[in-house]
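Might you be able to check the backbone structure tokens below? Thank you kindly.
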Amino acid sequence: MRRLRLVMVVLGATILATSAGMVYAFHSGGVAECGGCHSMHNPKAGGAFLMIGTDASSTCLTCHQNANDTGPSSYHVSTADTKLGPGLAPLQRTPGGDFGWIKKDYTFTVRGTTSTEEGDTHGHNIVAVDFTYAADPVNTTAPGGTFDSDLLSCNSCHDMHGQYRRKADGTVVKTGQPIYASGSYYNGTSVPANEPTATEAVGVYRLLAGSGYSKAPFPGVPAAKVPSTYNRTEAATQTRAAYGHATTGGHASWGNWCGTCHPDMHSSGNYVHPVDETLSGGVFDIYNQYVKTGDMTGTAASSFTSLVPFVRGSADYAGVLAPLAVNNDTNLAGPTGEDRVSCLSCHRAHASGWEYGLRWNMEGEFMTYNSLYPGTDTTPTAPQFARGRLGAETQAAYYDRPVTKFASYQRVLCNKCHAKD
């Protein structure tokens, strides 16, 4: 009976996730149905809190991974082990990335020296025993911080009970007006359906944790909107997550939020990249002009790339962020001097196909080589850029975009803001 109940819950989540209605997921912007995660009489053996998984992340992945996936699928954030064999890239294409990249080790030889790029370097090493995810074997604490790596789970960043909510006055609170819908999405037609009313609140972006959260002392909740269909290939058009900036009313900047666990990553040293700072000094002009290596003919109206997103200097969800949250390339407006660089400008929140969760390969000069994505199967072979991958795996790490989007010898995308290539 419990198995049938869980199947019905998952089926319901799938229907809601693809609906054009007021809610898009099982959580509906807040706490989910208790029976979807906990079993009163038949919990997972060895687990805690009557959860259906051995641990918190395993419970999450009960729904957020599906072994039958053949491509990007709804709210899934992880690819099953059976789909991660040699030469096979993880399947999901969410803005946050696919945790499956953590399980992809690559070995390659350059100038007679053999090296291995460990999958553990590809992102956040969540602990999910039931799905063979383990703690980071190298970093016992979060890089630049003190958070214990063996405690890292989905609910380290996400409030599993979804108590944080955004009211019509823009403030974020943990109780009060009921949550009637998710505040994460924009469906392209009806902003109000995903915005608070005078008497009802909406959930915060992605159930992220805020002030007073028990797992970590987050300073608040960061602002963002995404299109309602967000887990998809970018072979034809990009998926734009619209990140916003606010530091009052229960909000936090993206840099300070990430800095909860990584405080030393954006201190004020000479060798630390600025974060949460405005794109001043002509940087926004460079971003808007940069198309690819050797091409500075871009315009502010069409310069955005999801490989180097920026943060809007606003937390106006309905008026500013929602119109940007599209997946059809109808709004590719670039930054102004009021917009900001953030951790997410260079890193994916979950994991990526590259070391340190970066959005592009930083371990070599070229992202493309001789008009091809570098791979062990391409000619000429460039092992220092392919790094043990097939060309198709490299392309998958760039969310399937055609190689023609880049120059024949495209250099790293730090140049999107700095144009030193």
